[in-house]
């Protein structure tokens, strides 16, 4: 959650999320129009791009150098791409392709997956636990868990009654959260065992389409956004231990009454009563738009970020102790036309140095012969052109040899 990538009708843009007040554009490319997928490998200079012009082709770029590393074509349209430091996963409607990100070679093809029209899948960002989750059924909320390192099926989790709508791993790959198309209940499971750990109720009044589900980096919070105006943040904690400490209020008394009543109710009903409500919420001023949320630490404070499909980024303060209604502190335009207008109040600050992407553009034509070409974290700003061995289990990567990227035979 340290950078933001957006696809546009003219190409794609990459932003740094290191500051609340200033949205720094790291890179902009107008080489490929109508980009609908752009995935960046953390803060590195590797990006994967798919456009509507060639929806069956994946292009992998080193954006700092302005060079293409490789491209692959598939048998049908690419619906989503996920990547970590070990694996690159390409999801089609009825198949999944797993590549070794070290050399981009195809390691495994999972064929005949249940119809997955939205390309729903999740990959752990922790490359030591490269677990992949995807729908195991088109009619029910079954999750197939696959080990991307051993290339074997780990388990099947019967998560929901209805079809799945959202999946996400926590930062260590030890937990998996899911939501169904109804969008009323969000469940968290242990990985790789698949035991249910938490169950949160987003709301009972109406079904919603949950478009984004994300853990905080410390796995203490889980955020869910949908096509409604409300974003929910849940706290992953068990409240049963604290209930005896509650003061003797009317609400506390009623809570105990309900707790006692659950012993006489069917399991389905009593489970619903015991579900935890949202710890914090955000009220957006828009509804019906697809959006993506994130929980991040920016300038040492916890923030909730929401990016909407109309090209805006909203940054909220999140109170990690008391929760409640999150306060909007900044709104940024991502499409350029409103950028200066959004940042008028920053005019009193000293001008920022030229963007990093613009600075290195002049240098990228003459790579240093003393370093091994590769893609490094932070776009190479701090570590030159070398990938340190600890970034990949198998060491540095040479990306100049085209023989490392043979075409895929479908």
Automatic annotation (TrEMBL):
Transmembrane segments: none annotated. The keyword Plastid does not apply. InterPro entries: PROPPIN (IPR048720), WD40/YVTN_repeat-like_dom_sf (IPR015943), WD40_repeat_dom_sf (IPR036322), WD40_rpt (IPR001680). It comes from the Eukaryota. It is found in: Preautophagosomal structure membrane. It holds the Pfam family PROPPIN. Keywords: Autophagy, Lipid-binding, Membrane, Repeat, WD repeat. GO terms for cellular component: phagophore assembly site membrane. GO terms for molecular function: phosphatidylinositol-3-phosphate binding. GO terms for biological process: protein localization to phagophore assembly site; response to stress. It is a peripheral membrane protein. Belongs to the WD repeat PROPPIN family. This is WIPI1 protein. It comes from Tricholaema leucomelas.
